Amino acid sequence: MSVNDSPKRKSRDSSVSRKMWRFTTGTNIKLKLPQTISMCLGNITSQNLTQVSSSIRAAIQDLTARVTVTQQFHNTSKENQEITYLYSLPDLATISSFHADVDGRIVKGIITPKKKAEEKYNDALASGRNAFLSQQVSAGQFKCNVGSLSPDKKVKLVFTYVMELSFTDTNTIVFTLPKHNHTLHEVPFEVSIFTTSPVQKVDRSISSNIIPPDHELTLKITVKDAFGPVGLAEIQPSGGVVAAFQYHPDMREDEDDEQVNSEVIFLIDCSGSMSGTPIRSVNSTMSLLLRGLPPTCHFNVFDFGSGHRQLFSSSRPYNKENFNLAMSKNENRSADMGGTELYQPLEMILKSKPLEGMSRQIFLLTDGEVDRSEECIRLAERDSHLTRIFTFGIGSGVDRNLVTQIAKKSNGRCEMINSSNMEEAVMRQMNHALKPALTELRMEWAGWKPSEKISSSPYHLPPIFSGDQLIVYLHLEQSDVQKVKNIEGTLRGKSGRKDFSQKIVIDLSTASKPSEEDLILTSLQSGRSYLHSAEGALLDTNSDITAAVEKISLSTGVLSKQTSFIAVDDQSNVVSDQVTQVVEISSEVLMEECYEEEDCDGDMGFSLHDDDEPTSLRQCIEEAEECEVEEKYEMKKESQTSKGGGSFWKSFGFSASAEEEQESMDIEQKPVASSGGPLLQPLPSSSTISSSSAPSSSLSSPSKIISCQSVEGHFEATVLPHLGGIQLEDIKGHAGFGSHFELFLTAVVLAYLEAKMQESKTVWSLAQRKAKNWMKREAATRGLDLNAVAEEAQKLVSRK
Questions:
Q1: For the domain that residue 428 is a member of, what is the CATH number?
Q2: Would you state the pLDDT for residue 21?
Q3: What percent of the chain clears pLDDT 70, i.e. is strictly above it?
Q4: Beta strands in 508-618 (DSSP E)
Q5: For this UniProt entry, which residues form the secretion signal (predicted)?
Q6: Which of 64-68, 524-528, 671-675 has the highest mean pLDDT?
C-alpha cells in the first residue's frame, strides 16, 4: 500500500525518483526511501577532494532500535589521504559493530583497548597497509580515522549503534536521527518497525520521502496500548539468550489526583556572589515553588555557602504549619554565606535514605564554581537509583560542566537561567519532577533462588515516574536456556505506601534468532550495565570504573570510552613514500552562537561511553552537546475527563488544540492500513513552533495570583485585585454559587488564567493542578456539580 504520491524531483547530482513510504498491515511496518543518493557530510576546505556518500538503515522493535550507517569515501585527488571524520549520534546510543569494505573484502573492526588500538593503527600505516580506527569521543560523537586511502580509491565504512526509545504523549514512541551538515545532498533512509501493540499511526518530521539537508528526522509511532508490559528475547550465536522486560505503568489517575509521593529538597546557593538581583529572584521563585507543592509530599530547604543551614532536621510533611515556617525563612534569605561548598550538604542529603514509598528529588540552584566539583558529580551518580537532581545554572559564571553532569548522572535535567527567566524555567522542571512514581523497585525471577546469581541490568533499578518506562535486561547462558521453556520476571515495588507488582512471561520458543550484526537486545544489555561490585555497591573510584568499563567493552564487543574498534587490511599495499594529505570532515551542524537558556535530560542508567570531561571542540559546540536548546516546552496534557464528567475539564481549557483534534479525527476516520487511509502523517513544521515569552524579573501577574493560593489549594479574596476588574460582589452576589465563595472564586481564578494568561502557563500550571484537585474534593463534599461551577466561572470571566 502506498502513501503520499510525489512527483519526480531532480537532485544536484542525478535524477532521483521519489519512492513511496511503504508498510504492511498489522504491527510490522517498513518505510523505504531511494537506495542511492549522495550526502555531503561536511565542508572540506581542500577543494572537496574527498567525496562522501551515506545511507542509513534502522530497525525499531518496541522501545529498542538498531541503526546502521554506511559511509563511502572516494579519494579523487592525486595524493594519499588520511581522513578523519566526526559523526553525531543520539546521546544514549551505543556503538555495537564496525567494519570496512575494501574492494569487496570485509575487514571487521575488533574491540581493543584504546591505546593499543592507536598503536596498531599507526603501525599499519607505517607498513603501507590500510587501517581504520573508530572511537567514541563523547556521549554524542563518534570519530573514525581512514588511512591511508590511495588516489582514486574507494572505501565503505559501516557502523551500527543501538539505543532505547521512549514514550511521549502517553502512547507515542519517538525515534530521532540527529541533524547533520549535509550541505549539498540528501540521504537515503529505510526503517522497519515492529511493535507488540498494533500501530495506529506514524508521523514523520519530513514531508518528502528522503532526509533533506540540515533536517532532523523524527518518527512518532502511535500504538494502541502503550501501558501493557512487553517481553522480548533474542538468541545469541553462542546459544545464550538475552531477554528484555519492558515496563510502562499507567499512573495517569494518580497524576490527575495529585498523588505525588515525592520528597522534595531545595539546595540553594547563598554565597556572596548571589547578592542583589539573583538572590531576590531565587526567593521570589521559591515562593511560587513552595505554594505549588502537592499536599502528599515531604520537603526541606538547604542553603549553602562556605557552610550550610537547613530548614528542618529532616524532611517534613507539607502542611500549613511547615509551609508558613518555610515562607518566613524564605522572605529573609540573603546571600551571606561566603564561598561555595556544595559537597558537604549534598553528601549529607544523599547519606540519608529516602522516605519509605517516596521518590527523592533535589532542586539545586547555583551561580558559580564550587569546590570538589568532580566529587559532587560522583556523589550524584552513585545515588542515581534513589535520587534525581534538577540543576539550574544562574548567570554566565556558573560551572556548566558541574550542573550539566550532576543532572545527567542523576537522571535529572539542567537549565542555564538568569533572573529574567528563572520563574518559568524552575516551574517547568518542577512540573516535570512532581509526578507519581514507583519506588523501591526490584526484579524477582521465577525458577531461580535468591542466592543464585542472575546477570541482569540495570543492577540498581531507578524509580519509574508517570509517563516514563524501564527496560530490564536478563542474560542466560546456553546451559541455563536448556533448563527452561519460559522466562518469568516480576517487577515489585511501592506506589506510595501500596505494594506494586507486574509480571511478564516470555516464551523462549518465540525468541528471535538474528545474525551477530543484527543483535539489538544483546548490545543494549551490554551497554546499559550498571557498574557494581560483587556485593552490589556502585563502584567508587575512577580507576575502578575505568577498568570495569574496559572489561565489559572487551567481553561484549560494545564500544566504550576506554576502547576502540581497529580494522587493518592486511592485503592492502599503499605506497608510503608519497605525501599524505590529511582531510577532516564533520557531520555536525555547527552552532552559530551559544544560548543562555538550555535544557538537557539525564541518562536512565550508566552508559559505557559517558564522558565527564569537556570535548576538544570549540566551547560553543561543546555546550550545544551538553544541553539542547528547547524551542518549545510542552506541558503534559491534562486528562479531559474526571469522575464527575468530561465537560468540566474541557471548560477549563484542557481540550485538545485544533491540530490535536485534527490528528484525533485522522485516527477515527483512517485508523490503520487495512482501512485504506494514510497511516503516515506529517509533523508540524518548525515554523509553527514558538517559545513562550519569559516572565519579567519583577513579580509578574501570574506570580501575584499564585501568591494568593492557600496551602490547601483554594484561592483567597486577596487575589481579586489581580483578576482584571472582577469584584468581590461578582463572586458573592452570584445567584447560583455565591454562597460557596471559596469554591466559586477558585473556579473563576482558573478560568481567568486559562483565558488571559496562556503564554505563562508554565508558571501557573502547578497551582492549577493543586486548585482543581481541591475543587474536586470540595464539590464532592458539598454535593455540587463541578461542571456547572466551571461554566458559570467562564461566563463571568468572558464578561470582564
A1: 3.40.50.410
A2: 33
A3: 73
A4: 563-569, 580-586, 598-601
A5: none
A6: 64-68
Number of domains forming the structure of the chain: 4
**Domain for residue 426, yes or no?**
yes
Q: What is d(CA 259, CA 256) in angstroms, rounded to the nearest whole number? A: 8
C-alpha cell at 371: 569546590
Asked if residue 636 belongs to a domain, the reply is no
User: Are both 602 and 536 inside the same structural domain?
Assistant: no
Q: Could you give the strand order of the β-sheet that contains 172-177, starting from the edge strand earlier in sequence? A: 166-168, 172-177, 217-223, 199-204, 680-682
CATH number where 448 lies: 2.60.40
Q: What is the pLDDT of residues 446-481, one digit of tens each?
A: 877 655 667 788 878 889 988 889 999 998 888 878
DSSP string, 270-323: -SGGGTTHHHHHHHHHHHHHHHHS-TT-EEEEEEESSSEEESSSS-EE--HHHH
Helix/strand/coil for 356: coil
- Backbone angles phi and psi of 135, in degrees to 5: -140, 155
Cell of 798: 468572558
- Are 656 and 759 part of one and the same domain? yes
Q: Are 569 and 382 in contact (CB under 8 A)?
A: no
Do 695 and 564 lie in one domain? The reply is no
User: Which phi and psi (to 5°) does residue 75 adopt?
Assistant: -85, 100
Residue 443 DSSP SS3: strand
Tell whether the model's pLDDT for residue 35 goes beyond 90. Answer: no
> What's the rounded Cα separation, in Å, for the pair 557 and 555?
6
**pLDDT digits 0-9 by tens, 149-178:** 888 888 888 999 999 999 986 789 999 988
CA 320 to chain centre: 35
Long-range CB pairs of 316-325, under 8 A, 24+ apart, other chains included = 318/293, 318/294, 318/711, 319/295, 319/711, 320/711, 320/712, 323/290, 323/291, 323/293, 323/711
Q: Cα torsion at 118, 122, 123, 128 (round to 10°)?
A: 140
What lies within 8 Å, CB to CB, of 48 at 6+ separation is none
Same domain for 699 and 791, yes or no, is yes
**Ramachandran sector of residue 377 (left: φ over 0; alpha: ψ -120 to 50; beta: rest):** alpha
pLDDT of residue 541: 55
pLDDT at 33: 33
Residues 448 and 431 in one domain: no
Same domain, 158 and 237: no
Burial of 386 per CB tally in 10 Å (0-12, 13-18, 19+): middle
Q: What is the pTM of this model?
A: 0.71
Contact 130, 148 (CB under 8 A): yes
Same domain, 430 and 500: no
Q: 409 to each of 156, 388, 651, how far by Cα in Å?
A: 36, 9, 41
Q: What is the pLDDT of residues 698-734, one digit of tens each?
A: 444 788 899 899 999 999 999 999 998 899 999 999 9
Domain boundary (567, 586, 605) is at 586
Q: Quote the domain boundaries for residue 703.
A: 649-799
| Residue entry with cell 570538589 | 372
- Do 704 and 764 fall within a single domain? yes
* The residue type at 117: A
Tell me the three state secondary structure of residue 324. Answer: helix
Across the chain, what does the average pLDDT equal?
A: 76
CA distance 217 to 209: 11
Average pLDDT over residues 43-56: 60
